Automatic annotation (TrEMBL):
<dbReference type="Pfam" id="PF09656">
    <property type="entry name" value="PGPGW"/>
</dbReference>
<feature type="region of interest" description="Disordered">
    <location>
        <begin position="1"/>
        <end position="27"/>
    </location>
</feature>
<keyword id="KW-1133">Transmembrane helix</keyword>
<dbReference type="InterPro" id="IPR019099">
    <property type="entry name" value="Uncharacterised_PGPGW_TM"/>
</dbReference>
<protein>
    <recommendedName>
        <fullName>Transmembrane protein (PGPGW)</fullName>
    </recommendedName>
</protein>
<keyword id="KW-0812">Transmembrane</keyword>
<feature type="transmembrane region" description="Helical">
    <location>
        <begin position="34"/>
        <end position="52"/>
    </location>
</feature>
<feature type="compositionally biased region" description="Basic and acidic residues">
    <location>
        <begin position="1"/>
        <end position="15"/>
    </location>
</feature>
<keyword id="KW-0472">Membrane</keyword>
Length: 99
């Protein structure tokens, strides 16, 4: 197998790997569902004590984004927040389907 074919295969494998996109940056997540859930819950729980040094309240939304990959209820909540945010950011305040 040539180097180009190996690079293409590695790229396609990387594309299949679970990831989170925040601000246009792609961040890989663990492949194991259990590891993703544990890390998401850990981020949320540590974010709750965000007043302590090293941890912060920024960990709560990050944990929810990680959990939204596997937990449908969190995914729906995240999607609702995305829709709300994009509607809020529209300059004219109209819905896209409104005339």
């Amino acid at each position: 197998m040539s180097a180009a074919e190996e690079a293409k295969e590695a790229g396609s494998e990387r594309a299949k790997r679970p990831h989170v996109s925040i601000g246009g940056k792609r961040m890989p997540m663990p492949r194991s569902r259990l590891a993703r859930i544990v890390s998401g819950v850990a981020l949320v729980l540590l974010g709750i004590v965000g007043f302590l040094p090293v941890v912060g309240f920024w960990m709560i939304p990050l944990g929810l984004v990680v959990l939204s990959y596997d937990v449908p209820a969190v995914r729906r909540l995240r999607r609702r927040m995305e829709v709300w945010w994009h509607r809020r950011r529209r300059k004219d305040g109209r819905r896209p389907d409104a005339r």
